[in-house]
Amino acid sequence: MTDRHHLSTIDLLTWAVILGYRDQQKRDGIRILLLPLPPCPACNARVLDGTASWVRDIAREEVTINMRPCGHAHWAPLWAVEELQDHVVAMLSSLEHRMLTTDEIAREAHARLDIEAVDASPSAAAEASGYCPACGRGDCAPTPDEYEQQRQRAERAEAALVRVHHLADLIHAGAPWLSNHSELAARIRAASTAPTTTEK
């Protein structure tokens, strides 16, 4: 099956947090009792495996999540991933201190985006450069300036994910600054914007 479906903002945030947390569980050596994946947004079938892949070329920049066993593929533009980074960082950080179910993470994602009145509506999507609200695809012919702008935003989004994973590793390793809540909060905020650091 090769059907492709556009991920809503709420589904994108939910999947980003859950896939990020599952990656952390695997780095911690957990292989069996991983946080369950949400159901497929298209058919509501149980998802046993969800693999994210990134595409970056002159015509489009997007992330696709392929779901098994139903076979549906769900995509979102990289600018949408970048806009959700603050929420992703905050939710992953909270999972270090409390365990949530998949449904609870989905409800929190919904609540966060409701508070900010962020929705994957055509009117909101139309404001993004290179996005077509009619067909839900990226502009096939962005200007060179628009393409460079989108490329830089995608690089920042990927770099932010690397910094979040690095910070999570330091937290898990018992970094000495964990007891200082102000410093911990500052490091979490900096992870989404500051250059990668190797400081322990």
Description:
The structure is a single chain. The protein has 200 residues and is α+β, with helices and mostly antiparallel strands. It has one domain. 47% of the residues lie in helices and 12% in strands. It is built from seven helices and four strands. Strands 1-4-3-2 form a four-stranded mixed beta sheet.
| Overall geometric form | globular
Major β-sheet strand ordering: 1-4-3-2
* Distance separating the two termini: 46 Å
Helix content: 40-55%
Structural class: alpha+beta
Please give the radius of gyration in angstroms: 17 Å
Spans where pLDDT lies below 50 across 5 or more residues:
123-129, 196-200
Total helical elements: 7
The count of strands amounts to 4
Strand content: 5-15%
Total individual domains: 1
Topology order in helix (H) and strand (E) letters: EHEEEHHHHHH
| Main sheet overview | 4 strands, mixed
User: Please, what is the average pLDDT?
Assistant: 78
Please render the helix and strand layout as text.
Elements: E1 4-6, H1 9-27, E2 49-56, E3 61-68, E4 73-77, H2 78-83, H3 85-94, H4 102-115, H5 122-126, H6 144-172, H7 181-191
Parallel strand pairs: 1-4
Antiparallel strand pairs: 2-3, 3-4
Helix pairs in contact: 1-3, 1-4, 3-6
